[in-house]
Amino acid sequence: MMRIDTGLAFLFPGQGSQSVGMLSGLAAAYPEVASTFGVASEVLGYDLWDLVRHGPEERLNPTLQTQPAMLAAGVAVWRVWCRMSPVRPGWFAGHSLGEYTALVCAGALTFEDGLRLVAERARLMQEAVAAEAGSMAAILGLSATKVADLCRRASTATEIAAAANFNAPDQVVIAGHRAAVGRTAELARTEGAKRAVFLPISVPSHCPLMQPAAERLAARLADTPIGPPSLGRVVHNVDVAQHTAPEAIRDALCRQLYSPVRWTESIGFLAEQGVDRFVECGPGRILTGLNKRIVPQCRTEALFDPASLAKGLELVQ
């Protein structure tokens, strides 16, 4: 019999966690993986599972392919979990793109509609900024307040940099025009940052440059059926809040495109609600690593292959 565990939260990674061959071990043991990607391939009109299995990286890594691939991967792992355990989390959250996966798994959005949305989201994001005009960089070792100040100092009337992801107390990702991001990175190094490195991402997400994309995405969201989550509660990136009204969910997804991902606050909020165990549901361990710095007192397991599935299931024994 299904049981809700209010001390358990499922987290869904976003762009950057993908890799060629991801979930291959899980797929060999559980048919849910291939069947989930089969549905995705039908919706998208190309063989997404073949792309994930064989690549090459230069075809998988562009945002147009990565966003649907990561959504399908998260849903596939979730379906394996649902087969293996009657326990369901009381809470869901997803980093950036992962928020769409969270909404699908929480029952607010169908998988097929989620795929169509993220495919459109990726296209609009790609079109919003000219190729090579934008970039993102990770700043490690400085406070969020300090990084935001450096962004203001490096921006001009025509070139902006802004804090895009508040990932951990000592890790902030910035985004904007390539030159302004570069100036901010240089300032960060002079101010004592441990690292300030450009990321291999062509689209400057979660900054004002994405506002035109958000305005166009609003039209697609308006035509997409969205309901309140039927399983657990979803914490949104943009305001660290839970929404049940469809219009509020749509608004949060629109604002998310050009607003910072408040990940540190989101994880802190979940811990304050009594969550003491987290499952990163999807390929990679990025969110697990961040959690170790945000809530070291909590246990987090990344779930992406049979061995990690077994560890994840131990959390609910």
UniProtKB/TrEMBL annotation:
Residues 11-313 form the Malonyl-CoA:ACP transacylase (MAT) domain. It holds the Pfam family Acyl_transf_1. The keyword Acyltransferase applies. GO terms for molecular function: [acyl-carrier-protein] S-malonyltransferase activity; fatty acid synthase activity; fatty-acyl-CoA synthase activity. SUPFAM superfamilies: FabD/lysophospholipase-like, Probable ACP-binding domain of malonyl-CoA ACP transacylase. InterPro entries: Ac_transferase_dom_sf, Acyl_transferase_dom, Acyl_Trfase/lysoPLipase, Mal-CoA-ACP_Trans/PKS_FabD, Malonyl_CoA-ACP_transAc, Malonyl_CoA-ACP_transAc_FabD, Malonyl_transacylase_ACP-bd. The keyword Transferase applies. Coiled coil: none annotated. It catalyses: holo-[ACP] + malonyl-CoA = malonyl-[ACP] + CoA. Its EC number is 2.3.1.39. Signal peptide: none annotated. Keywords: Acyltransferase, Transferase. It is an enzyme of class 2 (transferase). PANTHER family: MALONYL-COA-ACYL CARRIER PROTEIN TRANSACYLASE, MITOCHONDRIAL (PTHR42681). Belongs to the fabD family. This is Malonyl CoA-acyl carrier protein transacylase. It comes from Candidatus Methylocalor cossyra.
